[in-house]
Amino acid sequence: MTKIKAALLGFGTVGQGVYEAIKSHQEKLQERLVAEVEIVAVLIKEPYKKREIDPSVLITTNFEDILNIPDLDVVFEAIVGETPSFTYLSKAIEKGCHVITANKVMFAKYGKLLLEKGRKKNVYVGYEATTAGGVPIIRTISQQLQVNDIQRVQAVLNGTSNFILTEMREKGLSFQKALESAQLHGYAEADPANDIEGKDAFFKLMILSDLVFGAQPDWDAVEVEGIQHITVEDIQAAKTQHLRYKHIADIYRYGRTLKASVKPVLVAPDHALYSIEGVENAVTIYASLVDKITISGPGAGKFPTASAMIEDFVSGYQIPRYQFTLNI
Ligand SMILES: NC(=O)c1ccc[n+]([C@@H]2O[C@H](COP(=O)([O-])OP(=O)(O)OC[C@H]3O[C@@H](n4cnc5c(N)ncnc54)[C@H](OP(=O)(O)O)[C@@H]3O)[C@@H](O)[C@H]2O)c1
């Protein structure tokens, strides 16, 4: 059987998820692709960490080793930060590899450029996992809403913030206690700043903006407000009026510009995001023909994110290469 050679950049939560899911779902992958998917190399940063990786797999801290693998088909990227991820993926595309990324910080800034590079080299650039974790929102918009005029997108894009707000409302916890609970459950990072201050949701909103509107608003003009100042008293007062705080990322056309914000909003029971609870993410799309649809699911985590990356790869791999010029 034909082999699809894959390299994995990063072996943290997401990288391990991709590695394990490719093994556990090999039969399904072979059915779909009529080929065996094999992880042949893993790039990591810290060489002395103990890892559950087959001895046949090349483990390296040097990206050049990955580039030197003959006939490499695809690079799955799950490392952190803007650089060196952008450089690595640019080089992989240049070599003729498909690339699949989960890295929202990098993709919010360089996504358009990477897609352009992919088009030029006839390779697939998949970024489903960058936004809303396991929720297939990128594919829904790019493939199922091609004719609709999308007017607005509103979303809960950070599971940690949503979990904290839910805990505060349901259990009467203070912000600090709810944050500690999120950390105990493994939802929040040791440094949760990006989540609770709204930056994580901001990056995802900018990726959606590129996809939906073909452009991003001026980053400095986007109102970004976190949830850290919301008190349990605020939440309980809202509750008595049957309102809930939701941390909502919102973008819509305003004349010739785009208006975007990421901030806590009080919503009523008839709002599409009112019932999105805990670590769930959800995206509501307002469009000319369909009117309004909301898609929700797990916004992060090892296997939901791996699911997004693997499904993304399988869909992209099946597209005839000449068609990548049509990629959004
Ligand atoms: N966690 C989620 O649920 C989730 C969901 C959607 C998207 N994402 C995105 O997916 C990416 C990975 O997230 P994660 O949670 O898996 O992170 P993580 O657990 O911190 O793992 C990061 C991995 O990347 C490696 N790494 C970091 N910088 C590197 C570099 N410069 N060169 C080589 N390897 C490097 C680390 O190596 P060592 O193991 O040697 O330290 C580690 O294996 C991030 O961009 C994140 O935003 C995460």
TrEMBL record:
Q: Which residues bind NADPH?
A: K104
Q: Which residues form the active site?
A: K204 (proton donor)
**Reactions catalysed, as given in the entry:** L-homoserine + NADP(+) = L-aspartate 4-semialdehyde + NADPH + H(+)
Q: Write down the superkingdom of origin.
A: Bacteria
User: Which amino acids does the record list as binding NADP(+)?
Assistant: G10, F11, G12, T13, V14, G15
Q: Which residues form the Homoserine dehydrogenase catalytic domain?
A: 136-314
**InterPro entries xref list:** Asp/hSer_DH_NAD-bd, HDH_cat, HDH_CS, HDH_short, NAD(P)-bd_dom_sf
The GO terms describing molecular function are:
homoserine dehydrogenase activity; NADP binding
Q: What is this protein called?
A: Homoserine dehydrogenase
The species this protein was found in: Heyndrickxia ginsengihumi
